[in-house]
Amino acid sequence: MLGKMTGTATLPHDVELAALAGRVWRPELNGPSVVAIRADGVFDISQAAATMSALCEQPDPAAFLRGCAGERIGELADVLSNTPEATRDRRKPWLLAPCDLHAVKAAGVTFARSLLERVIEEQAKGAPEKANAIRASVETLLGGDLRRLKPGSKEALALKETLIAAGAWSQYLEVGIGEDAEIFTKAQPMSAVGHGMDAGLHPRSTWNNRSLR
Fold first, then answer.
1. CB half-sphere exposure, 208, CA atoms < 13 A
2. Interacting residues of 12 by C-beta distance below 8 A, sequence separation 6+
3. Looking at 58-164, which runs of residues are DSSP E strands?
4. What distance in Å separates the CA atoms of residue 213 and residue 207, rounded to the nearest whole number?
5. By percentage, how much of the chain surpasses pLDDT 70?
6. Which of 180, 182, 179 is nearest to 152 (CA)?
């Protein structure tokens, strides 16, 4: 992570066209500030938008952000390099998670194999000896390679009705072949993990649904 704390690694490739906002801890104010990140530095715009949620609730957040002059508080490179906690100088600004008062949402994609195994797990209710029989039954009902099925299509909706009739429908199948993407609350307000922050995962975890970069 320390090697990625640079502007090049952090910013989008079309940064010149972007309207970029974030949050920074300002030690001299003993509090967080909403900032605009621009080519010539990091600018505190909290006089115009005290919270990120207030900025996001503007009719046109990008235009609003571009229209805020703000107070320049430093170079992005300096703020980035001061963000990792292990090397942080607490007398200088550092990045915070961008979310503040709004709940953290995410859109998820469930892959076909993962989706199938979730359904099997749900129906087996923790009994391994039932898993193979349920797997064979569900695969038969699915009628082949689920990866070829287009979510929300007529074929997908017809399959949904078949699975409901067979008692094999699941909320996980709704995510994979239904019309709606998986939108869910990942965390409560003020609990997001920011860029360059430490996050603890179980050491035996080889797969998890944390979208960490």
1. 12
2. 18
3. 71-74, 94-96, 104-108
4. 14
5. 78
6. 179
pTM tops 0.70: no
Domain boundaries of the chain, sorted by first residue: 2-101, 110-180
Per-residue pLDDT tens digits for 77-118? 999 999 999 999 999 999 999 989 987 876 655 666 667 777
State how far the Cα of 119 lies from the Cα of 134, in Å rounded to an integer. 9
Burial (0-12, 13-18, 19+ Cβ within 10 Å), 99: buried
**Burial degree of 157 (CB within 10 A; 0-12, 13-18, 19+):** middle
Q: Report which residue type is found at 161.
A: E
Amino acid occupying residue 85: E
Q: Quickly tell me which residue has 């490179």 as its tokens.
A: 77
CB 101 within 8 A of CB 34: no
Structure tokens given for 146: 């689920």
Alpha-carbon dihedral 52, 54, 57, 59, rounded to 10 degrees: -110
Query: 148 is written with which tokens?
Result: 């070829």
In whole angstroms, what is the distance from residue 196 CA to residue 34 CA? 18
- Please report which helix (H) or strand (E) contains residue 52, including its range: helix 52-56
